[in-house]
Amino acid sequence: LALKQELSRGSFPKGFVFGTASSSYQYEGAVEEDGRGKTIWDKFAHSFGMHYINWQLNANFRRNKKYNVEPSLSFTLRFAGKVIDFSNADVAVDHYHMFHVIFIFFKESKKKFSFIEKHEIQWLYFQGKWKKFLKFILNLQQNCIRYVLHGFADGGGEVNQAGIDHYNKVINALLAKGIQPYVTLYHWDLPQTLEDRYNGWLDRQIIEDFANYAETCFKEFGDRVKHWITFNEPHSFAIQGYDVGLHAPGRCSTLLHLLCTAGNSASEPYIVAHNVLLSHATVSDIYRRKYQRTQQGSIGIAFNVMWFEPMTESSEDKDATQRAQDFQFGWFMDPLFFGDYPTSMRTRVGERLPKFSEAEGALVKGSLDFVGVNHYTTYYAKHNSTNLARALLNDALADTGAITLPFKGWKAIGDKAFSIWLYIVPQGIRSLMNYIKDKYGNPLVIITENGMDDFNNPFISTEHALKDKKRIKYHSDYLSKLADSIREDGCNVQGYFVWSLLDNWEWTSGHTSRFGLYFVDYKDRLKRYPKSSAIWFKNLLRTG
Ligand code: GBH
């Protein structure tokens, strides 16, 4: 408790940045405006009401020859509704019209605004009354924000000026208030045209198209944006999109996966990840050769990284724990730091794992200035040798030969947030930071996401929902452990972003889940209110 009370901005080194994170698809809405093209998530979130059986007999037999996977007969069914509450992100939290809510942390000032005043101020801005609002607006305590561009041109090379103008407004407004934008180039919203034309991330053509898009961003915004994140969580979209099938484009090919369309989960996740790594490296190379010297920014990539603890002390489980980490984080980190995939992956995935040519390996290796880590939770890992896994799990996940669980017997590893996967284990962040330090030579790390969600309970009052003690505890516990990893263990961590600034559209969970420091009232014109955690965070950043 004593430690917790001490937590302040001063618990972190000089120059350490604090911010909140968001993403275009989960926030913006305005899907028909300013020439915005359709994305794979638009299609995915709207594909409900369809029931069909999609036989993949042939696909699976072809795959067997090529990839040496046991023959299987499988089919998929698509049921109604990809998103649990049948919502979509056509409106999301309407951020395209209201990016200015990023100012809702009020700077410490001579004038103390009351709770009500602050809301009136926000509300004015929300309604587009800019000038009046700007009179009131003061700087945020946070000194940066993680923002995602929705701007991936649809492959034709045509740049949409309306989109550029919009993001110029956002970036300039942020900088005018002293807030550094950390910009993510890709957070899962691939143009549907590229999916239709050549299967998106499955085709190497994506490397060139992504590079063109990224270069456009460097040209247009790089004079002001100094922190670039090429990708958000390639592991998530490779596995969820091409193996489990729960995310766009919803491909997978295993029996028992009722929500998927055609795919090949024995090979596609690996191909996708390979093309992502090559895209990242190509973009990073372009940035370094043509822009970095003049623009003086840095480039990184953000990964979803759970921490894993062995289920038992047996060497089998310890090996399985390492494999689980190899297949999640090492999959990307090893190529980036050592030039090739982990040995455990080479051994277990064999011919299905793509190879880097010598030149590609060299391009990928070292192609980042910082590692973004989205960290939320910790699981146990356990050795798994049964073939049942291949039937029950998805192919790429089964390749690990590890089962990961948040339970030991009946005992959960930590308290639970609302999301089924999110268990609260603060110590995990410290262990993970040490793992990165030891394994990869203490690279610069930025925590690009950390947070927890509550259920969007329709039966409780807004006042009640604003009292989010659990979230305060979550962040203060994780931040304490993070501070320990820096101060006591010497880990090179230089930033922390809360996921998320606002409640928003949580992918397959739709609007059932609330991750924000700010509450969004879905029943009343999307008005925003600070939860207790927003006030706590602001105070934390004010002290020390
Ligand atoms: C982040 O991913 C995303 O970057 C962000 O867009 C999102 O809003 C935020 O999390 C909150 O969810 O359901 O058991 O198959 C977090 C990492 C990795 C967590 C995949 C969910 C699926 C686990 N995600 N994982 S399961």
UniProtKB/TrEMBL annotation:
UniProt GO molecular function? beta-glucosidase activity
- Gene3D superfamilies attached to this UniProt entry: Glycosidases
The domain of life is: Eukaryota
Fetch the InterPro entries from UniProt.
GH, GH_1_N_CS, Glyco_hydro_1
Q: Which SUPFAM superfamilies match?
A: (Trans)glycosidases
Alphabetized, the UniProt keywords read: Hydrolase, Signal
Q: Which GO terms describe its biological process?
A: carbohydrate metabolic process
One Pfam family named in its UniProt record:
Glyco_hydro_1
Family statement drawn from the similarity comment of this UniProt entry: Belongs to the glycosyl hydrolase 1 family.
* Protein name in the entry: Uncharacterized protein
Lineage, top ranks: Eukaryota, Viridiplantae, Streptophyta, Embryophyta, Tracheophyta
